[in-house]
Each structure stands twice: as C-alpha cells, then as structure tokens.
Amino acid sequence: MELTAEEKILNKFGANIKDTETEVFDSKYIAIYNELKKHYKISQAMKAGSLSKGTKIEFYGDLDLTFTVDKPEIKDADEFRKDLERKMKVSFPKDEVKLQKVSCLIKFKNSIKIDVVYLPLIEYNKNKDQIKHIKSVNNNIKNIIRLVKWWNYKYNKKKFKSYKIEFHAIYSSASIYSKRIKDTIHKSGGGNKTNDIFDVIKEDAKSGKK
Questions:
Q1: Predicted TM-score of the model (pTM)
Q2: Whole-angstrom Cα distance, residue 98 to residue 105?
Q3: Do 33 and 116 fall into the same domain?
Q4: Nearest-CA neighbor of 43 among 66, 64, 70?
C-alpha cells in the first residue's frame, strides 16, 4: 500500500532519529564481558536493549549485556547480583556502578550506560528469541517504535516503559501495531486523550525538529 505524504514524513523522521553510534557502546560491552569472564563461567552472552534491536533513539535508550552461566545455575539471584556489583566496582573503579532491581548498571565517564543482566538459561533463551524477532521486523515498524519512544521521551515524561512500546510489534503489521500501541497507552493512562498520538509529533517530523 502506498504511503500518504504525511506517513512518508513520519516514516523519514522515525528513521532520522535512530541512534547509529554503536562503536563506543561496543568497546564498553567488550570491556565488561572480558571482566565478567574473569569471575564467572559464562556459557552465553548477548547484546540486548534498544541499541541491539535497532529501536534506540538519539540521546535515549541503552545497551544491555545479558548473560547466563554454566551449571550449576545460580540459586540466589539477589545475592549473585550483589556479588556482581562488588566485582564490577573493582573492575571499573572510576565509573559509577549501581545495583538495580534486576541488573547492575555501569555508567561510564562519557555518559555511556550499560546494564549488566544475569538471567537463568530458560529466561535467557526466551529473551534471546524476543530480541531476534524485534530485530527482524521491517523498518516501517521500527520507525513507528522510534516515533512512539520519541513522543514518550519528549512529551510523556518517559511514563511508558520501552519494552511495552516494543511488545506489540512482535506479532503485528505496521497498521495493527499503531492501533495496539495507541490503545495500550490510552488504557495505561499514558498521554492525553488524543485520537492519534502521532498528531503530537507531526509538527516535529515536518520541521525536522529534534
């Protein structure tokens, strides 16, 4: 189906706000991975987060280093994360290391942030499949995801979680995804009572404003 002139503008804007600066993230990812290998018997590790999926927007989003370990699996995940935090503080003494609910966040001096996430093997494989699918969706859907993230960041005070924004893209066409994401945001109380959340960002798209 041919895109309307307005849809073409939005689609182009969605592509233009994509963050493609991966080299700095990649170097930090490798540094963290090398440190983890010194302390744990890692069986698998992968890049996760919006940057790895191609849905990160400029100045907002992250890269996760998600890993699982050889058997025996970790029995107490909370204690393991505390141990992970201690070891990362030793490995990166000049950077900020902070334990979060399900991860250990490392914030480097250049403002690069990477979440280090341990997952049991079953959850790891499930997460891996979801990432693989998001990476494989067509560029139109990825552009819509980035547009919604843009709206959420600029106009909704980041009230809407990124994973929820991406969730409906897993089994949707671009048109179905647009409808589902609008319905979900409305039901969750995010945003205003607007017929179309994309109305909010059309002027930004038309002017190329960032």
A1: 0.73
A2: 5
A3: yes
A4: 70
